[in-house]
Design brief:
α1 runs antiparallel to α3. This protein has 95 residues and is an alpha+beta fold. It holds the Pfam family PTS-HPr.
Length: 95
């Protein structure tokens, strides 16, 4: 990791009623894909590339699940802020 890169580790709680299902996973992966930083999501002893819809869905994280987000790269802080806001907003889903 070069001196211009950052690494962040942060907890995330899934708040939307349906959890990290297809649409939510797609929104997460799209948000993560807007950045060069590597995004990894850990849950239940498994990890997934945060830019992979299928990988995120395979985590099977339901409402109330506590995930760990690890982001590394030059734009990691911006990626973290974007993903935190998306998850806190319940992926824009009105429940």
């Amino acid at each position: 990791m070069g001196s211009d890169e950052s690494r962040y580790r942060c907890p995330l709680r899934i708040v939307n009623r349906l959890g990290l299902h297809a649409r939510a996973a797609a929104r997460f992966a799209t948000a993560a894909g807007e950045y060069e930083a590597e995004v990894t999501v850990h849950f239940g002893g498994h990890s997934a590339n945060g830019k992979s819809i299928m990988g995120l869905m395979m985590l099977a994280a339901g409402q109330g699940s506590d995930l760990e987000l690890v982001i590394e790269g030059a734009d990691a802080e911006q990626a973290l802020e974007s993903i935190q806001a998306l998850v806190a907003d319940g992926f824009g889903e009105a429940d």
